Amino acid sequence: MRTRGWAGNVPASDEEATARILEATRRTIDERGEQTSIADVARTLGVTRQTVYRYFGSTEDLLSATAADGANGFLDQLAQALAGITDPGQAVVEGIAITLERLPADPYIGLMLRSQRSSAFAVTVTTDTARLFGRSILDRLDVDWADYDEQAIEDIIEMVLRTLQSFILAPPPASGDELRRLLQCWIAPAVTAAARSRQGSTAATV
Prior knowledge:
The protein is mostly helical. It is 66% helix and 0% strand.
C-alpha cells in the first residue's frame, strides 16, 4: 500500500483504505448526489485521484461498491416488510413496489439502478453488484423457490432489475395501489409462468 497522501493520516491496510474511501464517498454523495466523481471523493479524503483509482477502476465501480456496502440494512427492512408473503408472484410485486417507494430515502441503493451517465441503462442491470442485489431480494423472501430452476431465477432477477430501473428512470404517473395493480397484471404472471415452464419441461422428459 502506498504511504503518501491521506492528509497525513495513512491507513494501516488496504482494507482500512477501502473502508475510508467508501465512507468518504457516502459523505460526498450526501452533498453532491449522483454527480459525485472520484475527484470529489479524493478531495474529501485529502488524496490524489490516482490513490482512489488504485482501489476502484472507475467512478461507476466506486458508486456500485458504495451502494453494495450500504445494501444490507435496506434489504433487512425489505425482508421485514415482505415477511409472510409466500406466493412468488405476489412477493416479487411487493418487493418491487416497496423498493420503489423507499428508494428516495436511500440514495445509495439507487446508484446500482440509476445513473446520470449515458451508458448506465446498458450497463447497470448487468453488473455483478446489481445482480447480487437482485439475488439478495429473492433470497430474503418467504418463498419456496423449489419449482424454479437456476435459469428461471436468473430471468426473474433480470426482470426485477430492469423493471426497477425503468420506473426509476421514468417514474410512473401513479404509485401505491395503481402501481401494484400494474405490476400484478404484468409481472406476477411472468413469475408464475417461469415455474410452470420448468414443470412442463420436467414432465415432458419423464
